[in-house]
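step=encode ok
step=design start
structure_in=
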């Protein structure tokens, strides 16, 4: 007999023994999954088959594919995304490569000097934006966080002063710029300049 969720349920009446069950059960924790064989096998297993069709490799739980397939699919995704990005000419600003952000070319070259890998030919251009606060949004969020539905003043005391303070804050931070990693634009790195700097660094290192 099922018990309605909206009814008070006593501990003594909250369970019953069933002997006519048929279906799939996790052999580790004993959870019953009915006809869902896949979830019963997935439940507590830690070594699982890769879900790429035709792949015989294994994967760990919470991953869809094995390491080899994951690397291949990520490379295919990155290549498609890079091809789709718009090429920007004569760009000289912050950029990012493989999710690493660089403020300028010098910081990228310093990174290359410390790491043993070849410079990239192209890099992504981040999106630039400024943060502007809104007094109404701040107040509404405060009301929502306090879980107030009614019984508060729509215009609290000091509202005009608060609006003026927010406006002043926006004015004083109008030139504050933030960068976000997006994949819409790309530009060519100055490879000749980078190689010259790396060669100079290698020469200085040898002389030391």
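sequence_out=
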């Amino acid at each position: 007999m099922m018990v309605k969720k909206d009814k008070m349920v006593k501990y003594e009446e909250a369970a019953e023994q069933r002997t006519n069950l048929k279906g799939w059960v996790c052999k580790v924790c004993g959870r019953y999954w009915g006809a869902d064989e896949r979830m019963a096998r997935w439940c507590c297993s830690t070594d699982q088959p890769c879900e790429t069709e035709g792949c015989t490799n294994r994967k760990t739980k919470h991953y869809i594919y094995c390491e080899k397939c994951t690397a291949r699919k990520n490379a295919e995704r990155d290549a498609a995304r890079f091809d789709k990005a718009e090429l920007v000419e004569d760009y000289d600003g912050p950029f990012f490569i493989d999710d690493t952000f660089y403020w300028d070319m010098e910081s990228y070259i310093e990174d290359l000097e410390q790491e043993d890998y070849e410079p990239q030919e192209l890099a992504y251009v981040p999106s630039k934006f400024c943060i502007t606060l809104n007094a109404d949004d701040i107040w509404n969020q405060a009301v929502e966080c306090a879980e107030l539905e009614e019984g508060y003043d729509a215009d609290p005391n000091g509202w005009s002063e608060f609006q003026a303070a927010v406006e002043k804050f926006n004015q004083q931070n109008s030139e504050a710029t933030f960068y976000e990693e997006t994949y819409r634009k790309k530009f060519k790195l100055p490879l000749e300049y980078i190689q010259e700097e790396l060669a100079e660094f290698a020469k200085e290192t040898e002389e030391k």
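step=design ok
step=annotate ok -> The CA atoms of residues 130 and 177 lie 5 Å apart.
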